[in-house]
């Protein structure tokens, strides 16, 4: 008992009086304005669906996981969403391990209501087999540090985690279409959730009797406040939920004013969350590219067209590279002395092949890159559609207009290659020629490749891109 | 590590030390009294470190270990800021951010008798001195100095209290005056009470002064003295 007494956080009479006096002059103890949020930082972990949000001193981590379960009887074709909160004792001396306290349950409920009632997450897309199997999405929120205003912070953590969460792709199969296979993330790219809008919670604290309202109360302001209200809304101005549990009575005009303020703040916060999620997604797709630095980005480039998310079908890429390498090493011996041959060989293969060649060399040596700048570059904004088209051209699909351009570039590249060959016997140079020389054989391989694995074709949508 | 010739201060002064390090060997010194501060313990002839931190020495003969934490370990003769939790028949129960609640005898005031026991309500902030502090027992406090005079001890009215680390409190109490306090002192008038247990009380005429000074103090922990002055100047410009 005494230990608990010693460890509790206490507020002095001086602090109470001071906070109220300062607020009468419109000052808050940390120097903010009445309707200012503290500094918001959103970080993500390495896994999809894990976020850490800092709002001033308050720190909350969110994790989203999913599992296949049986749906509820009254909603056989909808997935389920559940929110769990954990108030870690390290966050505040008053948090005890074990049973969640009243405020913990309230926090979980407010966030759950904001997401569920407003239908922010599309539940029907989580159905796999109606009546039998659906995805159950579980959000875990861990409170790490209580600096005040846990509801808002936890809500942002939940939204950020949901926005970056990817669930495994699954397909139906078997004789009667009843067998469900869940694909591991390396086999098939996991899918994000369908989120219609982001319901943002905005908390107001009502202090002293002069009906002073402040936004985003700190721990000390919370200890002094007379009542609080949380409004959950989205950028469209829809009110998803309002929570006012006990505390001082507040006139209607004040409530309306709060809702108006909350609408502007919700837009701010939504844009911040979206920015952070975008940055995470870009970084994630970059990570995927970097994982396989072997020269097969051109193969992937062809497939990027179908895949919106810039996440490459690496397995296919790997196969390709595996097959290509031995050919190149073979050709090395053939081509080395043959400039005129490389000339004719390189003639009509188009930019795509040169890109491949360029990329091969890129793998070996940055200095001798000859292909287009953007398609393989992980730091570029996107794929140049012209280059895409030309890569497809190289595989046999005729694109006459492009070919002329390609030939021109060809000539330039070949002349460069020529000059490089006599000057040095470096590997990179030979690599360039090799790839150019090796291309007719590669082309044959490309066609075979296109026919080979069934699922590749399925993934694409149109079979034509492989030039088969 | 343990070699000390007679009369010379320990070679570990101003060095980081860890529990178990031997700082001095008393038998090698000439017969002089040595004062041990926090974090040091006498083990027969050896003085050993019990708390990790930096070893400090002040002439003529005081040694102690300094470390900065958010919790406080009570030590005798420290001046701290306590919050009254409860009042019993003989003592006030006071929280000083330590592992155990401290007792403040109701008579430990200047001219204190059974007739004029002060009334402290829960949450009163008081400036007190630690009289007894042994590990495992509740520390004892007093609102008088060694000679029995008030000397500024007692309840603090109004103002604002902030919690910080013990290292920052020591920095604020160091002499020469800490740069942040000095710079603000030139332009603004305010009063400050610093407790070695990581609590600081600030009071001034206008709330804005109090807010500016308290936030500046909190931020100054990680800044060097020039940085502190720059920060103080910037904040002062904003206020005026």
Automatic annotation (TrEMBL), chain A:
SUPFAM superfamilies: Ribonuclease PH domain 2-like (SSF55666), Ribosomal protein S5 domain 2-like (SSF54211). InterPro entries: ExoRNase_PH_dom1, ExoRNase_PH_dom2, ExoRNase_PH_dom2_sf, Exosome_comp_Rrp42_subfam, PNPase/RNase_PH_dom_sf, Ribosomal_Su5_D2-typ_SF, Rrp45. The keyword Disulfide bond does not apply. Residues 334-366, 415-468 are annotated as: Disordered. It is found in: Cytoplasm; Nucleus. One of its GO terms (biological process) is U1 snRNA 3'-end processing. Residues 421-433 have a biased composition (Polar residues). It comes from the Eukaryota. Belongs to the RNase PH family. This is Protein ECERIFERUM 7. It comes from Trapa incisa.
UniProtKB/TrEMBL annotation, chain B:
GO terms for biological process: CUT catabolic process; exonucleolytic trimming to generate mature 3'-end of 5.8S rRNA from tricistronic rRNA transcript (SSU-rRNA, 5.8S rRNA, LSU-rRNA); nuclear polyadenylation-dependent rRNA catabolic process; poly(A)-dependent snoRNA 3'-end processing; TRAMP-dependent tRNA surveillance pathway; U4 snRNA 3'-end processing. GO terms for molecular function: RNA binding. InterPro entries: Exosome_RNA_bind1/RRP40/RRP4, KH_dom_type_1, KH_dom_type_1_sf, NA-bd_OB-fold, RRP40_KH-I, Rrp40_S1. It is found in: Cytoplasm; Nucleus, Nucleolus. It comes from the Eukaryota. Keywords: Cytoplasm, Exosome, Nucleus, RNA-binding, rRNA processing. GO terms for cellular component: cytoplasmic exosome (RNase complex); nuclear exosome (RNase complex); nucleolus. Residues 159-207 form the K Homology domain. The keyword NADP does not apply. Belongs to the RRP40 family. This is Ribosomal RNA-processing protein 40. The lineage of its organism: Eukaryota, Viridiplantae, Streptophyta, Embryophyta, Tracheophyta.
């Amino acid at each position: 008992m005494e230990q608990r007494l010693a460890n509790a956080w206490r507020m002095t009479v001086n602090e109470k009086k001071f906070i109220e006096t300062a607020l009468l002059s419109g000052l808050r103890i940390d120097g903010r304005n009445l309707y200012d949020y503290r500094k918001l930082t959103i970080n993500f972990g390495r896994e999809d669906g894990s976020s850490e949000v800092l709002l001033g001193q308050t720190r909350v981590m969110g994790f989203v996981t999913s599992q296949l379960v049986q749906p509820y009887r009254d909603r056989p074709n909808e997935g389920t969403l559940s929110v769990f909160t954990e108030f870690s004792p390290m966050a505040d001396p008053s948090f005890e391990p074990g049973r969640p306290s009243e405020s913990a349950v309230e926090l979980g409920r407010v966030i759950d209501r904001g997401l569920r009632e407003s239908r922010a997450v599309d539940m029907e897309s989580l159905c796999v087999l109606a009546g039998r199997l659906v995805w159950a999405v579980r959000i875990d929120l861990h409170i790490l540090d209580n600096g005040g205003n846990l509801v808002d912070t936890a809500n942002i953590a939940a939204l950020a985690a949901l926005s970056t969460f990817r669930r495994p792709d699954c397909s139906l199969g078997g004789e009667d279409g009843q067998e469900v296979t869940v694909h591991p993330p390396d086999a098939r790219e996991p899918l994000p959730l369908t989120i219609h809008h982001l319901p943002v919670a905005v908390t107001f604290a009502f202090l002293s009797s002069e009906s002073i309202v402040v936004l985003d109360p700190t721990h000390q302001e919370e200890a002094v406040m007379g009542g609080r209200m949380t409004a959950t809304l989205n950028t469209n101005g829809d009110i998803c939920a309002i929570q006012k549990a006990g505390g001082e009575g507040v006139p209607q005009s004040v409530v309306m004013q709060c809702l108006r303020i909350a609408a502007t703040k919700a837009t701010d916060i939504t844009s911040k969350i979206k920015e952070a999620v975008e940055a995470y997604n870009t970084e994630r797709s970059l990570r995927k590219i970097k994982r396989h630095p072997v020269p097969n980005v051109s193969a992937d480039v062809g497939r990027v067209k179908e895949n919106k998310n810039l996440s490459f079908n690496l397995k296919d890429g790997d196969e390709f590279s595996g097959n290509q390498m031995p050919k190149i090493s073979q050709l090395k011996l053939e081509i080395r002395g043959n400039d005129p041959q490389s000339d004719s060989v390189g003639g009509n293969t188009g930019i795509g092949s040169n890109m491949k060649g360029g990329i091969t060399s890129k793998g070996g040596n940055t200095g001798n890159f000859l292909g287009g700048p953007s398609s393989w570059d992980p730091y570029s904004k996107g794929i140049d559609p012209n280059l895409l088209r030309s890569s497809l051209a190289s595989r046999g699909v005729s694109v006459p207009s492009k070919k002329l351009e390609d030939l021109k570039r060809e000539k330039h590249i070949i002349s460069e290659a020529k000059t490089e060959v006599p000057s040095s016997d470096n590997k990179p140079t030979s690599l360039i020629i090799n790839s150019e020389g090796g291309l007719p054989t590669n082309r044959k391989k490309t066609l075979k490749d296109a026919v080979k694995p069934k699922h590749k074709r399925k993934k694409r949508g149109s079979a034509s891109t492989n030039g088969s | 590590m343990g070699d000390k010739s007679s009369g010379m201060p320990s070679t570990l002064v101003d060095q980081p030390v860890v529990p178990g390090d031997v700082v001095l060997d008393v038998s090698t010194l000439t017969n002089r009294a040595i004062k041990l501060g926090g974090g040091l313990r006498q083990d027969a002839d050896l003085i050993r470190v019990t708390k990790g931190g930096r070893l400090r020495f002040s002439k003529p003969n005081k040694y102690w270990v300094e470390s900065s934490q958010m919790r406080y370990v009570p030590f005798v003769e420290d001046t701290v800021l306590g919050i009254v939790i409860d009042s019993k028949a003989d003592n006030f129960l006071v929280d000083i951010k330590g592992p155990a609640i401290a007792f403040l005898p109701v008579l430990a005031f200047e001219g204190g008798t059974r007739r004029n026991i002060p009334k402290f309500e829960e949450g009163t902030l008081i400036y007190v001195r630690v009289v007894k502090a042994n590990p495992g027992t509740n520390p004892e406090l007093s609102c008088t100095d060694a000679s029995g005079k008030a000397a500024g001890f007692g309840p603090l009215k109004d103002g604002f209290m902030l919690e910080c680390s013990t290292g920052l409190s020591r920095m604020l109490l160091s002499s020469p005056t800490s740069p942040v306090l000095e710079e603000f002192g030139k332009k603004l008038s305010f009063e400050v009470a610093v407790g070695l247990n990581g609590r600081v009380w600030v009071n001034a005429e206008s709330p804005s002064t109090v807010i500016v000074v308290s936030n500046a103090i909190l931020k100054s922990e990680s800044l060097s003295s020039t940085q502190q002055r720059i920060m103080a100047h910037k904040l002062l410009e904003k206020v005026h």
